[in-house]
Structures are given as C-alpha cells and as structure tokens.
Amino acid sequence: MELNGKKIILASTSPRREAILAGMDIEFTKEPKTHFIEHYKDDTPSEMIPILMSEGKSEGFHRRLGKNEVLITADTMVILDGLALGKPHHSSEAYEMLGKLSGKRHSVVTAVTLRDSKHKKTFIETSYVYFNDLGKEEIKYYVDKYKPFDKAGAYGIQEWIGSIGISRIEGSFDNVAGLPGAKLYQELKEFAKG
Questions:
Q1: Domain around 187
Q2: Does 1 fall in a domain?
Q3: Taking the CB of residue 172, how many other CB atoms lie within 10 A of it?
Q4: Which of 49, 53, 155, 162 has the most neighbouring CB atoms within 10 Å?
C-alpha cells in the first residue's frame, strides 16, 4: 500500500505489532532502538500512561528522522477498575493479574504516536474485554506454558487464554493484540498527506 512515498518505520520489538502492520500490506522497516526508559509517576491517570509511554518512545528514538520518514510508536495498557496493569515481572505477579481479570470486564487502551521530521500526532483506541471465570489451574497452566511477561495484563489475546478465557470483545481485536490496525491505517493515510 502506497503512502505518498513515505518510508514507514516501526519502533517496536513486539512481534504482534509487526504482524498487524505487515497484514495491512504497508512496507516498513523495524527500528526498535530508543533511549527512552519507561517510567511514570504513581499518581498518573491510567488512561494517560499509554500516551506518555508512546510519545516517550517516539521522542527517545535513537536518531533524527529524514524528511520522508514516518515513525510509529505504540504502548498498550490493560485497565481494570481504574488501575493500570502493566507487564508482570515474574510468575506470581502474572498469576495475581489474571486472578483479578477473571470473570470481569476490563479495558485495553493503546496509544499510537506518528511522527515525522516536522509533525507529531498521538491517538488512542479503547477496546473492552470480557473474561470468563478462570480456575487457578488454568491460570497456572497459561502462565507456566506461555510466560506472558512481555504483555500488559499478563495475557496475549492471540494465545490459548484468548481462545478459552475470553467470552467477548467490544472494539478492535487488533487493538487488544497491541496495535489498532483499522484506525492506524486511516490515521497514517491522513498523516502521510502532510
């Protein structure tokens, strides 16, 4: 898919984001290197965290952008009852997160930042995910086998737990996987015109 001759760069190590962008038939290169260190204050509103992280990754990109380049950065956050659930650091934290999500609805907010040498735009997409009640054995099986330590909320919707544990989704499936493809496509088309 042609985007006004722009060279698209994805600054992410996520194979899911790479697969979603590739599935949009957009040619891109992957350059995940950034000087940004992910951190935020404890009193930061949950919905603001992915915006701050996405923009931080963009501004911390390891080099200057050429005039024909568009950089894509993103951050996804799982929010349950107003609390942000980031990536678990170890198994017990993953068990705890999934125990909290069991039988409840939560939101998944992804912020995406588009930046070229002169402009920057950040947008968000929110999806709602409904979990079935998960037994302790199911949670342990998933965490032990799939090791979801690189995933917000300790789960990947495209994995086993998505098949057996999620009853429904309101909004974009791709967004829950890490990149809201349909919205990104529309935003990229507009951004590439400028």
A1: 7-193
A2: no
A3: 19
A4: 155
Element holding 136 (H helix, E strand) = helix 136-146
The secondary element (H helix, E strand) that includes residue 71 is strand 69-80
Check if 116 is active-site: no
**Whether the Cβ atoms of residue 53 and residue 75 lie closer than 8 Å to each other:** yes
Buried b (16+ CB within 10 A) or exposed e, 61-81: beeebeeebbbbbbbbbbbbe
Q: Is position 144 within any domain?
A: yes
Q: What is the pLDDT of residues 87-133, one digit of tens each?
A: 999 999 999 999 999 999 999 999 999 999 999 999 999 999 999 99
**What is the spatial distance between Cα 95 and Cα 80, in angstroms, rounded to a whole number?**
15
User: CB–CB of 101/80 below 8 Å?
Assistant: yes
Annotated catalytic residue within 75, 81, 116, 150: 75
Residue 108 lies in a domain: yes
CATH code of the domain covering residue 154: 3.90.950.10
Q: What is the pLDDT of residues 133-149, one digit of tens each?
A: 999 999 999 999 999 99
